[in-house]
Design brief:
Number of helices: 3
Largest sheet: 14 strands, mixed
CATH architecture: Clam
Order of helices and strands: HEEEEEEHHEEEEEEEE
CATH class: Mainly Beta
Radius of gyration: 19 Å
Shape: globular
Oligomer: single chain
Number of strands: 14
Number of domains: 1
Structural class: mainly beta
CATH topology: outer membrane lipoprotein receptor (LolB), chain A
């Protein structure tokens, strides 16, 4: 689901890449469907009619993902606010389901003159993630895993969460049977379920209009009801017959971080060559190759 920022102007030992994950859940958009373990809970029992209505919504959301073989975004503006600091970036994104069944992602951040400054590639087939800083001629390389994300970026984030953000579907991780409450008010559905972290509670709000569900908000609160993360999806438009949000807002209050993503142009199911996701050109002797784990130091 997911855009990042790196402090590309710093040199040498002072270089501390700062990566913000937008879906986080749509930030540095890594891909791999890894289902996390949710804590045990007492799920509610819905009436047959309510369960059927909810299942139809979940099926529609899933079909949108299944029908998206590739995704190309060439005009995307990312605004990042950290405390009193504010920065705006232009980024491009390419996503593709591979013939081997994996998922591939390439994100490119541009500088002030729209020249490429940073590239991130996630390749599930090869279990590889690279972050290349082009001006510094450095490439950070490591496996694509949930543990690596937590270690590097200090955020309790699974790669499946990022996938969910890109497709505006928090249910892609398969947790659809552990709902603790489902409130239905007209076309509005408010669903709660336990979070992946013990004690967390997730709240998902969606609306159904003209038979099409739209996830509008996804909140995560801790056991003290403190908001940890909020993602909001809006400006839904049909692209090649598939409804997609064109604006995503991420808020992490404890980190004083807000990220807004505005998408001007998106294409679905277009041809994207596998070479777009080949990291070999960033792993040559022209680049200093550094293990991803060093980013956490």
């Amino acid at each position: 689901m997911l855009l990042y920022r790196t402090l590309l102007t710093r040199k040498g030992k002072d270089l501390q890449p700062v990566v913000l994950w937008i879906a986080h859940r749509t930030c540095l958009l890594l891909f791999a469907i890894i289902v996390g373990c949710s804590p045990s809970t007492s799920a509610i029992q819905l009436t047959p009619a309510s369960r059927a209505e909810l299942d139809a919504i979940l099926t529609t959301l899933r079909v949108r993902y299944d029908l998206t073989g590739s995704l190309k975004i060439t005009q995307m503006t990312v605004t990042i606010e950290e405390g009193e600091q504010r920065e705006e970036l232009q980024e491009s994104l390419w996503y593709k389901k591979s013939e081997k069944g994996g998922e591939l992602l390439h994100i490119q951040a541009m500088g002030g003159l729209h020249e490429p400054r940073g590239v991130a590639i996630a390749n599930q087939d090869e279990n590889q993630f690279i972050l290349a800083l082009l001006n510094e001629r450095r490439t950070y390389r490591g496996p694509l895993s949930d543990g690596a994300l937590r270690e590097i970026f200090g955020i309790d984030l699974r790669v499946s969460d990022v996938l969910s953000a890109i497709f505006a579907n928090p249910f892609l991780d398969g947790r659809t049977d552990d709902f603790t409450s489902v409130e239905i008010s007209g076309t509005k559905f408010t669903i709660t379920r336990p979070g992946v972290k013990e004690g967390d509670v997730e709240t998902i709000v969606l609306f159904v209009r003209d038979g099409e569900p739209r996830v509008t908000e996804w909140r995560i609160n801790d056991e003290n009801e403190t908001l940890q993360h909020r993602a909001a999806f809006s400006n839904y438009r049909a692209v090649s017959g598939i409804l997609r949000p064109h604006r995503v807002e991420i808020e992490r209050p404890l980190e004083q971080t807000r990220v807004a993503v505005n998408i001007a142009k998106v294409e679905l199911n277009v041809e994207i060559k596998d070479s777009k996701f080949d990291a070999a050109r960033f792993l040559t002797e022209d680049f200093k190759i550094i293990p991803l784990s060093e980013l956490a130091e």
